[in-house]
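Cross-posted from the bioinformatics board.
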Amino acid sequence: MNILEIFTTIVQIDSESGNEEKISVFIQNFLAQRNIEFSQEKEFQIIAKIPAKNKNISEIKKLMFCAHMDTVSPGKNIEIIIDKNGKITSSGNTILGADNKASLANMLLLIDKISKNEIENHHQLEFVFTTKEEIDEPAVYKLNIESLQSELGFIFDKANEENINTVVSVASSISDFTVELKGKGAHASTPERAINALEMLISFVSELKLGNCYPNSTLNIGVINGGEATNTVPSVIHLAGDFRSESPEYMKKIEEDLRRAQMKVLSAKKFKDANIDINIIIYCKGYTHNVNSPAFKNLEKIYSQLGYDGIKVLKTQSGSDASCFMNHRLNVIETFCLNDGCFEVHTVKEWTTIENLEKLQEIMQKIVKYW
Amino acid sequence: MNILEIFTTIVQIDSESGNEEKISVFIQNFLAQRNIEFSQEKEFQIIAKIPAKNKNISEIKKLMFCAHMDTVSPGKNIEIIIDKNGKITSSGNTILGADNKASLANMLLLIDKISKNEIENHHQLEFVFTTKEEIDEPAVYKLNIESLQSELGFIFDKANEENINTVVSVASSISDFTVELKGKGAHASTPERAINALEMLISFVSELKLGNCYPNSTLNIGVINGGEATNTVPSVIHLAGDFRSESPEYMKKIEEDLRRAQMKVLSAKKFKDANIDINIIIYCKGYTHNVNSPAFKNLEKIYSQLGYDGIKVLKTQSGSDASCFMNHRLNVIETFCLNDGCFEVHTVKEWTTIENLEKLQEIMQKIVKYW
């Protein structure tokens, strides 16, 4: 069994978010066949546990590896193409699914090696396989978190980074929001009887700064839908967007900006009978690692021992299950989000390489053996 | 046979725009059974012809009556409710379809009476039954117009007017338009890589005056749709709307305003790689009757003889088949759009009364006998 075999096998098991049953069953069988203790969790998630094997370990550490089993779409009937340089892509009609199956495959390979006694010594390990990571309600929050003993976690889910020794030091908080701008419709020929929701939209957005609204902070309105017919003054427009910041202060400021824009529009005389509903949903809270902590220094050592130039730290504005483990809903496993060697993820051009898959295995083995 | 019988019969034949076959077949049978000469026209339309019967007519006039057979939706399985005062409504789940079946029923009743020799004298008559009047591409344009001989036309299709002796003197032109605002998407966390289509929308609309933009002229953007996902800067937004004016000059001005807004947005540095497509479609051209013309004066006389206080003239910004007959595509039948005694049309509260249905018959008979 090698990494390419296991990777291509699981990539070909369709698992778009919300349809993870097949891959979950595959992994459960994989674990059962190797006599690995595991529990079935909510929403087809899995927690596998492996006791330490401590031939050469003085102190047993408790470490977690986590990967998500779901993919974005289009992720059905993925065909894998491997070129002569070892670059792996899909046929171009689907994503590749390397996000997060590059990591998933490596976790399975590691488990396989441990089960065959091919790894002489390792710490106590927990392997967590999550679902619905790619959508607004990641299932990780439904794990039986009490059963986890690990103090440190590793999630290889940071894509599009040139240096494979990249580690996220700061991840932004992300909040989703919806806005309903509710005026009053009327026939296009009698606009004076209407409260035009499009005019409300213009006023509302004019009060906001879209894009890079504060340092390392963004505000986006991604979806705009409204109006009933060509010949009707639009009565309702719906917006959906998100805002992101590494700073809790700016997160609060952006929320206040939205509320202020709401009040400003509604205070205008012509909108006095209108209504604006804003609904803000925390998608994930951000986190900041102390780059001088023993754990961060140890991570640096691990990569250095593998020949890398220490680690590259990176601030990110995208979410991962690491944000979930790091925030209040799933405290207190200090979890690192690490480069997964994948590129152009979430597109049909997604790619990785055999070399990168092998490097991940090397890094994972180094961690379990020598943390 | 009375007007209520024929009205309730045809109201119960579903005929939402694009599904007029059943009602067209019904009317063709109705005509055939009465030996009325008729031709089947494109899109289930019908032209029926009745020679003059001139016992008491010195000069034979050639007159057309026209009604559309289609209804807006929801117009399926209409249940009719008649209260003790003779008010006719649907059950409240559908439209009533009185638009335009109040007129249609009266035309059929008139034809029935003529076929039974119950009308002693009348002018030469053409009855035109059109389809798809309620949608953007009225089928009336596909009639074999050459076959029509009438010089004057009467279309009872102006609703929501208190006085049944209301006649449209000026009808606006209406043009529909669509706008595609095309920027460039990017992940919400990297807005600097995007050209935000929502920002283009704000700039574009800010250059326009929505609603009553010029005297007796309106501009409406009725439908606004765009964006791909909450976490993506929107790359494309689509707009659909219309503009209306009784003045060709203002119609031109509004079109120029749209083009100017387009150029203004695209001249901004941040939108230099963006694109805006505007597509303008003439829905109907307007018209203006000379209220001092012999025809208009004659109409006034007809209503006066029936006991009305002459006629009420009305400017309208809504379209009808009259606009089609009056404009270049179907010249040259001078066609009047008259009150149909119906209210709250295009809604599930639509209503008319038995009395109004009977008044329409009275007006129609007066026209065919004494124009």
